[in-house]
Amino acid sequence: MKTFTREAVRDQGSSVDNPWCIIDTVVYDLSELLDTHPGGEAVLRQVAGQDATSTFYSLHRQEVLASYSELVIGSIEGEKPQIITPQPGDLSPVPYAEPLWLRGEPFRSPYYNDSHRRLQKAARVFTDRYLVPEAKECEATGKLLSQELIDRMEKVGLLRMRLGPGKHLHGRNLFDGAVEGEEFNYFHVVILAQEMARPMARGFQDANMAGMTIGLTILLNFGPENEWKTRICDEVFSGQTKLCLAITEAFAGSDVTSIRTTAEKTPDGKHYIVNGTKKWITNGTWSDYFVTAVRTGEGISVILIERGEGVDTKSIKTSYSSTAGTALITFDNVKVPVENLLGKENDGIRMIFSNFNHERWAMCCSVLSQCRVVVEECLKWANQRIVFGKRLLEQPVIRQKLAKMIALVESNQSWLESITHQMCNMPYADQVRHLAGSIGLLKMSCTRAAHEIADESVQIWGGRGLTQTGMGRHIEMFNRTYKFDAILGGAEEVVADLGVRQAIKNFPKAML
Ligand code: HEM
Known about the structure:
Butyryl-Coa Dehydrogenase, subunit A, domain 1; single chain; Acyl-CoA_Oxase/DH_mid-dom; flavoprotein; Flavocytochrome B2, Chain A, domain 1; Butyryl-CoA Dehydrogenase, subunit A, domain 2; 17 helices; binds protoporphyrin IX containing FE; 5-stranded mixed beta sheet
């Protein structure tokens, strides 16, 4: 690459028609950008021949530079770059941008070992390389994620790993040997959920096979041990066939016992006839299988319904991207073989609640990861933004906001890890009895934290926090979508109440 002195840039690049500028130690020829620059030509002409580093960073996200690399004509002679350009897989050097266990020396954690570190590294590279660009595109266009990405995820075992530890991982190649299927535990899932939430695209996050993650678990844990189950699991894990969980209805959201979709047995006892509707079903518009809660006589059961005659799905527009495939589903006299019943008839509530545990806990992982990205964005912005002649960080009111946000993320992450440790040491069947309450309270705590963090972050970012493009886009996205975690998988108030009711249930009989 050519090198220039700063004087040479001033002399040769100060023409307003052919302006050059310096950003850090790199020299850009802005001539080709004059006509297309989203911020207009005038501002570019104003910096002709100058060092525009601080102006540039107060107006753009760093990634802008990577996508305009063709404007680079050289670098400044003898100077070392001051600005860190993150590479795929890099950890952030910003304080509190990574969980404590990832910060390296001298920090320690009792929960994570080398296999966790290897998995984190591989998952971060994967996210930066493949998820971030596709998330950006799908989030904007509402398109379904590509089969190419699904195949890539399947190849490294990502689809299987997201369902948690179990036989489905044994003997599998997981991220090129980063972790053995047999040693895989819930902390590996925390890592995956947190890494995969980093693109800050809440609609895409759900588009990325969330239906499978929360639905296939019921089939895996409660389905019959036979060829049929193995075939469906393999089809879904291959990513060729899509599956989602269909519980909520217009009649019943968090109040699952009020569902009205019915499944009545035919007189010969060979089929169920299913009638009813399901609403807000993530991935429903493009799923092939629906793990569906139905009313069977006096109780609730769960059956696997295949897309076919009588099944209709329509897209519901929500405040996040339609890439998530959120659907209204109607079942109109759908004939389903009785073999598709999962678990026992009328035992659905127990299965649904066991499954909810995993879903709610996974939501805590991802919403905390997004909260952490927001904290990082706010720290970076407060460090570089000059207002009333000072950096934002120099304003005590801003530091108070940051303190509150950091404390909310760190305390909830610690609680998440403590509960995850219990999950690693408790059989799945016992978790619903001993952990459902704590997980409900944790979810409430995480989404309350998200509420506070979304609110404070917009105040720190001002108009940019309300703008879908440019520097504050992560803040805008978070403020628009954090409510999904407060509603999906059980509304904040309902899961909080569950936590307290479980505590009351276990209260000693004696007066204390
Ligand atoms: C290599 C040099 C530059 C490139 C590639 C570039 C590119 C861009 C892009 C893509 C945007 C859209 C917003 C975003 O995505 O962040 C933008 C906005 C903008 N740019 Fe630049 N730019 C450059 C240099 C500059 C410089 C030197 C200035 C000021 C002197 C400037 C002033 C602005 C302004 C005022 C906006 C609108 C910002 C807003 O709406 O908040 N740009 N630029």
